[in-house]
Write a structure and sequence with these properties.
The protein is built from 18 helices and five strands. The chain is elongated and about 115 Å long. The N and C termini lie far apart (88 Å). Strand 1 and strand 2 form a beta hairpin. Pfam families: Hormone_recep (PF00104), zf-C4 (PF00105). GO terms for molecular function: nuclear receptor activity; vitamin D response element binding; zinc ion binding. One of its GO terms (biological process) is positive regulation of transcription by RNA polymerase II.
Length: 470
Amino acid sequence: MPFAKYANCLTPVSIRSGKHTPPHRAHTLQHSHTTPEQRKQTDLESFVVVMEPMTVTTSVVGPEEFDRNAPRICGVCGDKATGFHFNAMTCEGCKGFFRRSMKRKASFTCPFNGSCTITKDNRRHCQACRLKRCIDIGMMKEFILTDEEVQRKKDMIMKRKEEEAAREAMRPRLNDEQARIISSLVEAHHKTYDASYSDFSRFRPPVREGPVTRSASRAASLHSLSDASSDSFNHSPESVETKMNFSSLLMMYQDGASSPDSSEEDTKLSMLPHLADLVSYSIQKVIGFAKMIPGFRELTAEDQIALLKSSAIEIIMLRSNQSFSLEDMSWSCGGPDFKYCINDVTKAGHTLELLEPLVKFQVGLKKLNLHEEEHVLLMAICLLSPDRPGVQDHRRIEQLQDHMSETLQAYIRVNHPGGRLLYAKMIQKLADLRSLNEEHSKQYRSLSFQPEHSMQLTPLVLEVFGSEVS
């Protein structure tokens, strides 16, 4: 700051003690280095930085050397100072008095002996001694702006205000409809997703005992490898090490078996009843969420059913990411009984053809660090897919999906200014879900062909995923 040069002109000690700074010091300092006119021109622009919109003041921030913890006292009258004014620490009252006196070229005469003590209470009594005190502490008329300079400063402030308004207008923001969509989806998610997982205790209990099947053994191997290779679980090219790990797992899976497990090993899928209840419960919550998506209930009943049947497992996989842990590649849904690892899912009849890409999907989605708003929008976009089998009003569903996609893109622009690729990565997750859905359907059909396993499924699961048993 230009005023840093004048730090020695008025020290906090001289202000507090009431000692006068000799006039010749201010006079000498005034003419050092630069002329007053040059300093005034330079300071004019620096003043604007500390201006409030549409106000004019010559207040500036004090020199860096000034003790900010010391009381700020006016060097003229001892009142509380508001800053450096015209090169001295003063209150607003003395600042205004000095400016008016200099502009009017006023000449005052002391009615007493010319050495009045100026205080906050009597500063109006003797203008001559007050003005003399102003000059003694270093206040300089050269720092008083002319009317033209005041107007110029106002113009500069107005220009900056207009520039800021223009930048604000250019800043991306959500429109009212998009804000309502996001609010509705977040509310729908909160109402249909219990993060405490308290209802899980009502399911048929999980049973993890029993002989370890080949699928379970291979799943344990996958789980042990997950820590080493989890950083490579994304949709960019995988590392050679990761490819080798999964290739060896698949070879292990294929060795000595043309079917997932022998009949002896598959006599009992101990986790099937519990996970069937979990999936049935999750389907109910997905239905509740769908009904609160703006525009969904306006569709025909046939289209609502078609969309739900086709997308239910994908929405469940998306939602399960909330409980997925990158630390141990498991889903934690409350207590230890409801912490699910890959091995548990194999005991419900699923194999690595589903579980390997499912874990990759969960890791990749988790690493996107989506906001809750982005997560619920992705679920809505997933559900409102016009290319689902059995859909009739493709155009209307596509319009609804487009609204969700536009809202998601707008949200990303507002909240992730540098995240240009985030939307593309999220849409890629929807393509991954289609592949997972297809593999899940294949494994479900294989399971439902066996009556002893099909009878463990709930009516809702059979209705949504289809029953292959008559």
